[in-house]
Amino acid sequence: MEELIVKVDGRDYKVFVEETEEGKIIVHCEGDVYEVETKKDVEQSAVERLHKKQSVEEGKVEITAPLPGIIYEIKVKQGSNVKQGQSLFTIMAMKMENDITSPKDGKIKEIKVKKDDNVSKGYVLAVIE
Amino acid sequence: MGDNKLKEFLNKSRELQNDKQAAELQHKKGKLTARERLKYLLDADSFVELDAFAELQSRELEHKKRAGDGVVAGYGTISKKPVYVYSQDFSFMGGSMGEMHNKKIVHVMELALKTGCPCIGLLDSGGARIQEGISALDTGGRIFQLNTLMSGIVPQISVVLGPCAGIAVYSPALTDFIFMIKNTSYMFITGPDVIKTVTNESIDFEGLGGAKTHNEKSGVAHFMADSEKECFDMVKALLSYLPQNNLENPPYYSSDSKAREAKKLEAIVPEDSKKTYDIKDVIAEVFDKKSFFEVQPLFACNVVIGFARLDGNVVGVVANQPKVLAGCLDINSSGKISRFVRFCDCFNIPLINIVDVTGYLPGTEQEHDGIIRHGAKVLYAYSEATVPKISLVLRKAFGGAYIALVSKDMGFDKVIAWPTAEIAVMGAEQAVSIINRDELSKNPKSKSELVEQYSEKYLNPYAATKLGKIDIIIEPRNTRIALIKCLEMLLSKREKRPAKKHGNMPL
Q1: A69 & A46 share domain
Q2: Which residue range is the domain that position B213 belongs to?
């Protein structure tokens, strides 16, 4: 608990502020108890939740080329187990090595391209199960 | 006698506040009632209802009449600032939009416009009330007209909390931001049944016009929430970045040190311009801690847009995302950028670009779908914007993307570059194969040497500084401090444009 002197309309008040285990803020002032919600907390939690949103695909998923380019690197083999977000291929396009990542945890069922292949947008690179 | 009438009136008013039938109906579906929604969204005890006793006028529907006509409208405060709101009541005739229902909405909108306060619509309606005929349609037209008149004067927010079908979709579409809720919100012009009979295509509500579809695929919606309460928290968060109207500045709120060095940047951005990284890490490091509020985080992810604070001042951030499609500009991201830039310009929010991109996406698909007219939107929006415009070049800024996102001649007030910046018409290999075509046909082996010469001569920020195209070159760690200084200098910027009715933006 923290002790603070707060000036409101020219008068000094002695208040005690405590933070509970659930992160709530309780203010004690002249025998009254108030539960306080800080403006920042409400907004902050909304902002943070926004960042966490991600969709997970289910079942058999085809990995397709998001843009036209050249297969620069194949990082997995048929039968490899992969995790969501793991890099599977790099496609050289727009002067960059673009990472193609796995949308889900699973097993590579089939790889349909080889190094230096020219792929168009939407071309199926691999199938994950 | 008079007293009895008043008593009866007040009793009825109390009954309206506590509508058990509505509560039962909505709660069963895991939804809140129209009034509960307003209670959660607005500051405690701040709501003042308008036209609570308006009811439908049609004689044939006499038996259905209920005070309020399916919408709760009024005003209240959010974080102590006044807002106008309306909340459709699905429990009365499916929230359908009849004449009086629409007039109540119009009333609230007119007041928002007159008083310069944001207007928030909580939508949960099956569409026009067919039984009332053309008069229901006509008053709906007045809503669209007001949406348009209010655009650029007060922020307009639509929260879709149930179905929103047919003509009802166009009011949200005319507003600035649309929020949707997973598995409960739907927006479409024609429903799955009509689609099935006309085209024999089978699709469910969620797939056709659910929150996910409109946030990821169509780009109609801007935010997706898991629950109604989470959604209202997001609305409050968004409002904390916006001014009340176009004559005010956005709210200032400082939470981070002005002199903080952005030390992590060097580790985040690889020096090799072929390597990718997550631009959101850069944004998090540069702007005030945890202040970035991303807009349309699930649509056209090759470009990241959103509001952030820089030394407490609200700014609109537009950044290439090298991790997705090499951060290129394409049709979807062009629309996403332009609309955001125009919103920021309307409401005095300075723009900061973070640039690392080789250009517009090449390909027949993009060309045939009209990348020329869509890409032109970006040029139009930036040229038109008179708010402070700052551009920060991290690595690549080539060709058309350079003009759109960096060019001082097109109106950027201040351009800052890292030492790794490469500013040129195009990449070295492509440039050499055009400029030195004759030489290469005689001696193909000279290519690598020519590429090196070109890179040294043009692919660095120093050549551009000599031409005055870049104002300063900074070490990455000084990015935050440099941007704050630029913004401070530009905050009082005023720019007059020749008077005209309005321009003709490429659409």
Answers
A1: no
A2: 32-239
Would an 8 Å CB–CB cutoff place B224 in contact with chain A? yes
Distance CA B361, CA A93 (A): 10
Same structural domain, A104 and A75: yes
Nearest to A67 among B79, B293, B325 (CB): B325
- B495 three-state secondary structure: coil
Same domain, A72 and A105: yes
ipTM score for this prediction: 0.70
Q: Looking at the structure, do residues A90 and A32 belong to the same domain, yes or no? A: no
Read off the pLDDT of residues B394-430 as tens digits, 9 standing for 90 and up: 999 998 889 999 999 999 999 999 999 998 888 888 8
Whether B408 and B442 share a structural domain:
no
Are residues B428 and B385 in contact, defined by beta-carbon separation less than 8 angstroms? no
User: Range of A74's domain?
Assistant: 61-128
Using CA coordinates, name the residue in chain A closest to B222.
A50
Q: Which residue has the tokens 């919103």?
A: B343
Whether the CB of B271 is below 8 Å from some CB of chain A: the reply is: no
Which chain A residue's Cα is nearest to B231?
A46
| Nearest one of B290, B272, B504, B352 to A46, comparing CA atoms | B290
* pLDDT tens column, B20-62: 888 888 888 889 999 999 999 999 999 999 998 888 887 777 7
Work out the number of other CB atoms within 10 angstroms of the CB of residue B167. Answer: 16
Contact A95 B275 (CB under 8 A): no
Selected for mutation to probe chain A from B290, B394, B455 (highest A CB count within 10 Å) is B290
**B433 to chain A: which residues are within 8 Å by CB?**
none
Could you tell me the pTM of the whole model? 0.87
